Amino acid sequence: MTCAACANRIEKKVSKLEGVEDVSVNLASEKMYIKFDPKKVNDEILKETVKNAGYELELPTSEKIVTIPIEGMTCAACSNIISKKLNKLDGVISANVNLASEKATIKFDPTKVKLLDIKKVIVDAGYKPLEVVEDEKIDEDKNRKEKEIKIMKTKLIASAIFSLPLLIISMGHMVGLPLPEIINPDTNPRYFALLQLILVLPVLVVGYKFYTIGFKNLFKLNPNMDSLIAIGTSSAFIYSFYGLIQIYKGNIIYAKNLYFETAAVIITLILFGKYLETLAKGKTSDAIKKLMNLKPKTALIIKDGEEIEISVEEVEVGDIIIVKPGGRIPVDGVVIEGFTSVDESMLTGESIPVEKKPGDKVIGGSINKNGTIKFKAEKVGKDTILSQIIKLVEDAQGSKAPIARLADIVASYFVPAVILIAIFSSFGWYLAGAGYVFALKIFISVLVIACPCALGLATPTAIMVGTGKGAELGILIKSGEALEIAHKVNVVIFDKTGTITEGKPDVTDVISIDGFTEDEILSFTASAEKGSEHPLGEAIVKYAEQKGVELKVIQKFMSIPGQGVEAIIDDKKILIGNRKLMENKNIEIDIKDEIMKLSKEGKTLIFIAINDKLAGIIGIADKVKSTSKAAIEKLHDMGIKVAMLTGDNKRTAEAIAKEVGIDIVLAEVLPEDKANEVKKLQEEGKIVAMVGDGVNDAPALAQADVGIAIGSGTDVAMESADIVLMKNDLMDVVTAIQLSKATIKNIKQNLFWAFAYNTLGIPIAAGVLHIFGGPLLSPIIAAAAMAFSSVSVVSNALRLKRFKLNK
After folding, report:
1. Structure confidence at residue 134 (pLDDT)
2. Which residue, of 107, 167, 468, 556, has the fewest CB within 10 Å?
3. Can you tell me the mean pLDDT for 378-385?
4. What is the DSSP letter of 403?
5. How far is CA 176 from CA 168, 172, 199, 575, in A?
6. Mean of the pLDDT values across residues 350-366?
């Protein structure tokens, strides 16, 4: 594919197939993303359809290559036995056993056969497989890109070697450069013309694809960029060849009107532009490469009491893995032994290492900093967070934003329109008496200055770099559509618990009454609540332990559902619970001012009575996250209103809203009604982003224009969301919206450049300025301008790599 017309042509052809639901062809990544019914469409049908459109389809492969050293082989019979047994194994594509090196090189499909099965076959044959010394994924995309760059570079060098002397010979005498007498156009016009023909032919051969693809598409009435180059350079060559024949017939005047160098230099300049474009396009997928490089190749597992190093693909759920300081964690799991801190910055964007202890989760791809840990593998292969992140980013980079449709529509009409403009403008100049040589110049200039590739690259390159940058910052944007809509958001709704707040209750106040100390109140309360599973009880016990308060022995305990607990401690009757419990037990509450103050602050009150007299009050609240207020202030600075959605009572909700600066409070909302509250705001014409972390947030996340899930939340919430924040930090909501704004701005700049370039370039090439005495655009200058237009678009997109949060 060379331009937007190519991508559109493939999209149209494939979308017409029965069973194809959705198709998107990305010119920048040179990939097709397709959703289809496998009962109606198969690989062969897709290959044939793309081939009929004039292109080649390379299907993805999951093949892997490993080299396994084998111990115990003594002769050719040994290597033959192993080779035969391996090649019979379902999923093994090829197995080559080398007796001299004592190694087996195996190409296999990991979806059909595991490395453990391959090793078992070698053991069953009577030999000992050693550690895998090479575990290499076939990265066809990378190899293809490198091969393409190498081919493009070779073509460019070859083309330049012939084009440069051709340019000197044809144009040198005009600027006073001396030419040898044998090729002087005045004295030896035949040799002058013949040498130019000899030099241009290798360049045409180097650029043969412009002609094979260009004319093929032209004859199918689907012209593309190659068609424009093919028509333009062919016209220059055919006219010049006609001039050569005339010179040999004696019409030496034609020696002044040869355009062999135009054809050669146009091809060289286009190849140069394509070479630079290929290099730049390679950088758009840097984020994916960085993520893939995080995958460790081996893991150290404990099996039968021994430490064994195996390929990471061999790790199974339940395996116990050891990671030493400086090592990379191979898969996702839970720590069962040891303490350490882990650098998760490559995955979450969080720069500070996270402390890990038994019971904590670890993420594959992160780096163990200082301690040795053992952990149990929970997710392996494609189920790991890293693999899912890579897939999310790849899917997002292949998706199309709605803004891309404008470029697609223009591109579909663009090339035929350019050909018509070239024909009419050149014919117009000829009729006006400018002569056919002048008309030919106009015809070629118009054809080669037009650049549909810049239009085709404007959106996908920016989306690829933008989503890649998001991944680096721990912000996973699932689609180009989400990336585009996010910049229009004017209301952000936050779920309260676990989003604005920490999601776990903490003791904030301890008030002692009637001569008791705070420590005594905490000691009695925490002792009674020690066995409780209630979150409020757990919060009190945790707080008492942090304060170093000594717990007492419980003599008697009774739970009172919906009210609290009753206990006997140190021969004292202890009542712990809500106001209802105190009222039912006729305990007088006479500290109304303190109660009112704590209630206004949205705190839950726990009353403690000792021997039927009020002895203290404990205030408990779900603490606001440290970044919540700053994030909300930043959203206000951006002109975005902020709402809070919660099932909590209105007083608690309003207290938190006041603390962090919330504009709209939607309190006492049942989980099933959250989506309706989002819908109400949308019906008022608002573009709504919903930020949540729980299962009950999923419908609201799906209803919102942009659903944003906090990464520490549930899988259901993350599945329903359009954007996933890997960190539990609301500042990333701001970052996501700012990244969206920066990406859309970049896309608009690219589209403006692509449209403006053609809007200005084509009329100048058609000779509009020349009508008013201005300059005429040379076909060579037109080719140079075309070559650099697409490079400039890709280079502009790459600027997004430098994106930083505007604080």
Report:
1. 43
2. 556
3. 84
4. T
5. 11, 6, 21, 108
6. 84
Residue 441 counted as domain residue: no
Helix (H) or strand (E) holding 67: strand 64-71
Q: Which two tokens stand for residue 336?
A: 């069962």
Catalytic-role residue among 226, 319, 408, 495: 495
**Are 126 and 220 within one domain?**
no
DSSP 38: T
**What residue type is assigned to position 526 of the chain?**
A
d(CA 353, CA 362) in angstroms, rounded, equals 12
| Domain assignment of residue 520, yes or no | yes
Q: Taking all residues of the chain, what is their mean pLDDT, rounded to a whole number?
A: 84
Burial 76-104 (b: 16+ CB within 10 A, else e): eebbebbbebbeebeebeebebebeebbb
d(CA 284, CA 300): 34
DSSP 8-state symbol, 450: -
Q: Can you spell out the DSSP letters for 318-356?
A: T-EEEE-TTPBP-SEEEEEE--EEEE-HHHH---SPEEE
Per the domain annotation, does 392 fall within a domain?
A: no
* CA nearest to 691, candidates 631, 745, 650: 631
Alpha carbon 777 to chain centroid distance?
Answer: 41
> What percentage of the chain has pLDDT greater than the value 70?
92
Question: Which pair of tokens denotes residue 354?
Answer: 């996270």
CATH number at residue 72: 3.30.70.100
Nearest of 115, 213, 206, 137 to residue 166 by alpha carbon: 206
What is the Cα–Cα distance from 186 to 172, expressed in whole angstroms?
Answer: 13
Together in a domain, 591 and 723: no
How many domains does one find in the chain? 6
d(CA 185, CA 753): 42
Nearest in space to 265 (alpha carbons), one of 785, 783, 786: 783
Contacts of 497 (CB under 8 A, 6+ apart): 503, 622, 646, 648, 694
Instruction: Read off the CATH number of the domain in which 546 is found.
Output: 3.40.1110.10
Q: Once rounded to an integer, what is the mean pLDDT over residues 85-98?
A: 87
User: Looking at the domain assignment, is residue 797 inside a domain?
Assistant: no
Range of the domain at 327: 297-379
pLDDT at residue 742 in the model: 93
Mapping DSSP onto H, E and C, the string for 608-653 reads EEECCEEEEEEEEEEEECCCHHHHHHHHHHCCCEEEEECCCCHHHH
Crossing angle between the packed helical segments 260-284 and 225-248, to the nearest 10 degrees: 160
Q: Which of 737, 758, 780 is the last residue of a domain?
A: 737
pLDDT value of position 795: 86
**Which pTM was predicted?**
0.71
Domain end, chosen from 694, 721, 737, is at 737
Q: Are residues 275 and 316 both part of a single domain?
A: no
Whose structure tokens read 């998706």? 399
Q: What is the pLDDT of residues 499-537, one digit of tens each?
A: 788 777 888 888 888 788 889 899 999 998 886 667 788
Confidence of residue 475 (pLDDT cuts 50, 70, 90): confident
Is residue 788 helix, strand or coil? helix
- Cα separation, 657 vs 642, in Å, equals 10
- Kindly list the distances between the CA atom of residue 708 and the CA atoms of 89, 249, 398, in Å, as whole numbers in the listed order: 46, 76, 20
Same domain, 524 and 612: yes
Q: Any catalytic annotation for residue 495?
A: yes
Residue 89, pLDDT > 70, answer yes
Chain centre to alpha carbon of residue 556 = 59
Q: Does 361 share its domain with 507?
A: no
Residues 197 and 258 placed together within one structural domain of the fold: yes
- The pair of three-digit structure tokens given for residue 46, joined into one six-digit string: 């897709």
Instruction: Give DSSP secondary structure letters for 531-595.
Output: T--SHHHHHHHHHHHHHTPPP--EEEEEEETTTEEEEEETTEEEEEE-HHHHHHTT-----HHHH
Residues 577 and 632 placed together within one structural domain of the fold: no
**Model confidence pLDDT, tens digit, residues 40-71:** 988 889 999 998 888 889 887 667 777 888 88
Whether 706 and 603 map to the same domain: the answer is: no
How much is the pLDDT for 135?
40
CA dihedral 490, 494, 500, 502 (to 10 degrees): -150
